[in-house]
Amino acid sequence: MTAAMYLPTFYVMQKFAMTTNKYQLFAVNPDGTPGQLMGHAEQKRMAFKEEVTFYTDATRARPVFSFKARRKLDLNAGYDIYDEARQPLGFFRKDFGASLLRSTFHVEGPGYTGTGQERSQLVALVRRFLDIPFLPIHFDFVQPDGQPLLAVERQGSVRDRYTVHVPDERVDFRVAAAIAVGLDALMAR
Hints:
Blueprint (H helix, E strand, L loop, with lengths): L8 E7 L4 E9 L5 E11 L7 E4 L7 E7 L8 E6 L4 E7 L9 E6 L2 E7 L2 H9 L7 E6 L5 E7 L6 E5 L7 H15 L2
């Protein structure tokens, strides 16, 4: 079964702002350039426990989906993902214990579960012990049987830019987008 909003590849681009993380989601054109704007979100820095809402554009006139922490002050906090009518789309959480040496996240959605982990143990260790900005970071989310669900790849650049690949048609674009933004915000803490 294909998700209600399936998008096989898209970009997440972060715009720099002093007090706010701003994210734009773009479909990918056939030539690999950013295409249609699929969403815009703003998240206050150091206030990740509040809800992050995605809108159709920067006017923030129409909310289209969101994610919100289930609990505050919990290192293993989970985040529920909702559509614009507040119906649940999925869930993700950081696995704090498994993330000490290599960041690990879990995802659940209609008909699937999976675990995502940093692809490179070396990059994960370098990122923890040396302050080297702009390292490329890759996460691969797989089902328990090893089949891929989605991959999030941060390019090494001044501004964070992620390419999100979603080979599993059951994974809704909104779930994949919430995870990609959540990874960025949670790893920046």
